[in-house]
Write a structure and sequence with these properties.
Elements lengths: L1 H7 L6 H10 L15 H14 L9 H7 L16 H14 L1 H14 L12 H16 L4 H15 L6 H19 L5 H25 L7 E12 L2 E8 L10 E5 L8 E4 L10 E6 L5 H8 L6 E4 L14 E7 L3 H13 L9 E7 L8 H10 L3 E7 L8 E2 L2 H6 L7 E6 L2 H11 L8 E2 L10 H7 L1
Parallel strand pairs: 7-8, 7-11, 8-9, 9-10, 11-12
Antiparallel strand pairs: 1-2, 1-6, 2-5, 3-4, 3-6
């Protein structure tokens, strides 16, 4: 085990070893782990394969042979957003969106039947990945009539997918299965005009993502190996973990990183970075173990100093703005992580005219949930412009602020002229932003966009 860790410290020289260690083969574990997962996609793939075997040969659409016979993928610059027919693509995709999970299961079944080798790129349990993919696909299709937004979304997807080892061959297989899925759910509404529109759309998406991925290879690896240098169990089920990446990890305060542990190959979960960028390169994660959470429980209960994890490319839109306004920060639970990073960044970069006043409402259920309060007090003692207000929602007899965060904040008056940052459980974020919208312009209220219903990203960001 120690020899493996030593080899991983030279990530630039041992990328293939790191790949083998982290899951592109069998995982390592500290103890016996048994998991038997048969996904809906697997069952549907078998059903689809049987039904295809019963079809007349002339009607069987052999996607693998079709892919081999197709022309090469479009060259970069050969297609642009101006060539798209967004209306036709959106209207036909609406049938897929209406079918929801059933359509996504059908899509993966088609993909895996035609390309069995691709299944190894995905985790054993597809639930979280399926939800994330459907949300990303919906955002992508919705943005096709906005070239700037579309390019930004596709660029981020390209960077995210580099950690999976996606190649041009995978692009072709994915988009062929997607086009076939839309045709299946369109039924009699499918036409040659719609088919042509979808072909242009998938070519545009593929070209844009490939170009963004190629550009990203110049400045960043597909993943970072990081060693755990500190692991503290601060409160029941919550750990503060400090990591040392083997290569420089460039990020902005407020962003998050996908994390993969050795126990669960190909399973990535996003965690907000709790520190502003530092010269030493160390980063801090606040992780809460959630029931049934593969990665969170591994990080909290089955990881220690010297263990290594993989990190994906940093992402997220919440960042400190270039303004001299005072800051209003609202954090619930481990949603404190990105808020703390932004506060550190604000303290380190004072405005030209003065130090900004920073007010932090930190909401938890009970006093022992204030897992990072000692560090916050140290920060406040060193920087008097920071005021930390803990708020407990379920602690009878507590002498400080009690109640739900939005209710407590409403009793503190209006917050005009401030820049607000909010992170925590989705319900709290929605209620808080609605409260703040009465006195703060929308452009001065910052949060990472909440994922669609059913996605686990929100809980991953704030609860591990």
């Amino acid at each position: 085990m120690r020899q493996r860790r030593a080899r991983l410290r030279g990530h630039g020289r041992h990328t293939s070893r790191a790949a083998r260690y982290f899951g592109f083969t069998a995982p390592l574990s500290r103890g016996p782990v048994s998991l038997s997962v048969v996904s809906n996609e697997t069952l549907l793939s078998e059903k689809l394969a049987r039904s295809q075997a019963q079809m007349p040969a002339q009607l069987l659409r052999d996607s693998a042979a079709q892919l081999a016979a197709e022309a090469p993928l479009p060259a970069p610059g050969s297609i642009s957003a101006a060539d798209l027919e967004p209306r036709l693509v959106k209207e036909s995709f609406a049938r897929v969106a209406a079918a929801g999970p059933t359509a996504i299961e059908y899509f993966y079944a088609r993909l895996f039947v035609a390309n069995p080798a691709i299944r190894s790129l995905f985790p054993m349990s597809m639930t979280a990945h399926r939800e994330h993919m459907f949300a990303a696909l919906t955002r992508t299709i919705s943005s096709l009539d906005s070239p700037a937004a579309s390019a930004e979304i596709l660029g981020q997807l390209a960077r995210e997918h580099r950690k999976y080892g996606v190649t041009d061959r995978h692009h072709r297989a994915f988009f062929t299965a997607l086009r076939d899925t839309v045709e299946h759910y369109a039924g009699l509404g499918w036409s040659s005009e719609i088919a042509a529109a979808w072909q242009v759309a998938v070519d545009y998406i593929s070209v844009t993502m490939r170009a963004a991925a190629e550009l990203d290879t110049v400045t960043a690896p597909p993943w970072w190996v990081a060693e755990i240098v500190a692991h503290e169990l601060r409160s029941p089920g919550v750990a503060v973990i400090r990591l040392r990446p083997t290569e420089p990890l460039h990020y902005r305060a407020g962003q998050y990183v996908p994390v993969q542990v050795t126990r669960w190959p190909r399973v990535w979960r996003p965690y907000s970075i709790a520190t502003a960028p530092r010269r030493a390169g160390l980063i801090e994660l606040h992780v809460k173990a959630i029931p049934g959470g593969l990665v969170s429980n591994s990080l909290v209960y089955h990881s220690g100093i010297g263990d290594c994890v993989l990190l994906g490319a940093p992402a997220g839109e919440m960042a400190l703005t270039d303004t001299d306004r005072d800051l209003l920060c609202v954090a619930g639970g481990t949603g404190l992580a990105p808020i703390k990073a932004i506060i550190e960044q604000a303290i380190a970069t004072p405005t030209r005219s003065r130090h900004r006043k920073i007010t932090l409402f930190f909401g938890v259920r009970q006093q022992f949930d204030l897992y990072d309060f000692d560090d916050l007090q140290l920060l406040a003692s060193a920087f008097p412009s920071l005021r930390v207000l803990p708020v407990l929602s379920d602690e009878p007899g507590y002498m400080g602020l009690t109640g739900r965060l939005p209710d407590v904040m409403s009793g503190h008056g209006l917050f005009e002229g401030t820049e607000a940052y909010v992170c925590g459980p989705p319900a709290m974020v929605c209620q808080t932003t609605a409260l703040l919208a009465a006195s703060i312009p929308a452009g001065q209220i910052h949060q990472d966009p909440l994922p669609e219903a059913g996605s686990r990203k929100a809980s991953a960001l704030v609860a591990g």
